[in-house]
Design brief:
heterodimer; A: about 250 residues; alpha/beta; 6-stranded mixed beta sheet; 10 strands; globular; B: about 280 residues; 2 strands; about 75% helix; about 0% strand
Chain lengths: ~250, ~280
């Protein structure tokens, strides 16, 4: 892991409506190549943080630096930074149906690279390689609404893989997946990690955390980060997990 | 009084059951269309752009033709194309002719009597069916049934996403095509959500629901669906933004014309020209 800081989140708070904080004074530094798991119960603010890191929402207070530049509405209005940022950072939404908005799988996986200005030949090359890597070549011409949950998740990943992002943001990636798809997804994350990508995964699924995390940070139900550290330290702190409404199978055995 | 109770509950349950039935029927119809579009057949094997241009040309040809026999011949050809495209003939005929009176009834019935011309039949109350009236009605029925059959042939043999991509050849703006695609895609998603909501309501409904209860339930379901669709639309927009969307759309144009596509395009255009020429 190198020491380039990908995200520097400094004292960030965010509220959807006034007096309803979704994030409360959050501080976080994420280095390139890190595999960070953001643990937290439902509604603790994990998904909101990912959307802030992806430049979709902006903090009510505090600052976020991304790839060495402030991540604000203003900086994202600059096409050069916007294109560079969107090419390097990809967000996998929790609900694949939200992410798969195109009429066919082909259009879906072609969407991001085309929008971000890649040449058509290069886009076609990346589409073939992404569909092959995720073993979904046969779904190429299918409509997304006819796919199973596991297939939709693969297509959602392929739609970002064509961008070859350096930083993956994943929101509850194992939700609704059967055990085989879940195990396949873990393999996918580990593979990306091995290739030096930065993985930031928000989840409350402790069963996958140990396998994929190099670092963990824990959100309390009060929308604050209450702990961060190595997986072995965090996952063995049963009081902490209990306090944050996170159960842990291994902790009870 | 079990009989009255059961007939009442049957009547009351109808709102949920009818809605569920309607949703299921729509989904089944879409599934059937997708199944047909995956079959091996003449129309399925053609480039979607050829099908769209040919269908439009034939629709215009039928509208410009003033000869009943020519329009009837195009209708028979459409049935022949449907047959070679593995569409059951009775399916196409039933779907068109059973729906036809609902769309044309209001026009054709008065047209029989009020179109001036030589009398053909005299009916009671001084009503007269004229020769010109019958001709007008036959023209209308044949034109509508041929046009609807041609459109159905296109829709049944081409997946909706392919139709949308091919619409690019008609120079429809890409963003409009994307919106049409998203509308179709999310209608099905919301239909599934509505189906689940009605099923869940059904599983918790015992016995009698009066009209106002039904109205309240429908209002609640509609409200929840609206709120869900609003949430979803804002999430979809974020997902698009996240992948670089800035207001304009760039799409792949994956179509490639083969020699047999050109051949069939020429055939369809020749039929159109012939229909206009012979029917002038």
């Amino acid at each position: 892991m190198n020491e380039e800081i990908v995200f520097d989140v400094c004292d960030v708070s965010f509220a959807y409506e006034e007096q309803q904080a979704a994030l409360d004074h959050v501080n976080l530094k994420i280095c390139a190549g890190e595999s960070l798991v953001i643990l937290g119960a439902n509604g603790s603010g994990k998904s909101t943080l990912l959307k802030l890191l992806d430049g979709l929402y902006f903090p009510s207070s505090g600052t976020i630096q991304a790839l060495g530049k402030p991540l604000t509405e203003e900086t994202l209005r600059d096409d050069e930074f916007n294109f560079a940022f969107r090419r390097r950072v990809g967000l996998v939404f929790q609900d694949s149906d939200v992410q798969l908005f195109s009429a066919s799988v082909l259009d879906e996986v072609a969407f991001a690279p085309l929008q971000l200005g890649l040449a058509r030949e290069e886009v076609n090359r990346r589409i073939d390689s992404a569909l092959e890597a995720l073993r979904i070549e046969k779904l190429r011409d299918r409509a997304p609404h006819r796919l199973s949950g596991g297939e939709k998740r693969r297509v959602a990943l392929a739609s970002l893989l064509t961008l070859q992002p350096d930083v993956w943001l994943m929101d509850e990636p194992t939700t609704g997946l059967d055990p085989r798809s879940q195990s396949w997804l873990i393999e996918f994350i580990l593979e990306q990690r091995q290739q030096g990508r930065t993985m930031i995964v928000a989840t409350h699924d402790l069963s996958i955390t140990e396998e994929i995390a190099s670092t963990i940070c824990v959100f309390s139900e009060g929308h604050q980060i209450v702990a961060s550290g190595k997986p072995s330290d965090i996952l063995n702190d049963h009081d902490l997990l209990h306090r944050c409404n996170l159960s842990h199978y291994h902790a009870r055995n | 009084m079990p009989t009255i109770q059961s007939s009442l509950s049957h009547h009351r349950a109808n709102v949920i059951d009818h809605t569920l039935h309607g949703i299921t029927e729509t989904l089944e119809r879409a599934l059937f269309a997708e199944e047909i579009s995956a079959r091996a057949g003449l129309f399925q094997s053609l480039d979607a752009r050829v099908k769209i241009i040919s269908t439009l040309a034939l629709l215009i040809g039928v509208s410009f033709s003033h000869n009943l026999w020519v329009i009837a011949a195009v209708y028979l050809l459409t049935l022949l194309f449907a047959w070679t495209s593995a569409i059951p003939a009775d399916y196409l005929i039933k779907r068109v002719w059973l729906a036809l009176p609902f769309f044309t009834g209001l026009i054709i019935v008065p047209a029989l009597f009020i179109t001036p011309g030589p009398a053909l039949f005299h009916l009671p109350f001084g009503l007269v069916i004229t020769q010109t009236g019958v001709n007008t009605v036959l023209f209308l029925l044949l034109r509508v049934s041929t046009s609807v059959s041609l459109t159905l042939l296109l829709i049944l043999t081409t997946p909706w996403n392919t139709v949308l991509s091919a619409l690019g050849v008609l120079h429809l703006p890409d963003v409009l095509i994307l919106i049409l695609g998203m509308t179709y895609r999310y209608i099905y998603l919301l239909l599934h959500v509505a189906n689940d909501m009605f099923l869940s309501r059904k599983s918790r409904t015992v016995g009698y629901l009066d009209t106002s209860d039904n109205q309240r339930m429908l209002a609640a379901v509609s409200g929840t669906l609206l709120s869900k669709s609003l949430n979803m639309s804002s999430e979809v927009y974020l997902a698009m933004q996240s992948r670089g969307f800035q207001g304009s759309i760039i799409t792949l144009k994956p179509f490639k014309m083969k020699s047999r596509d050109w051949f069939w395009l020429c055939v369809f255009l020749a039929i159109t020209a012939l229909a206009v020429f012979l029917g002038r």
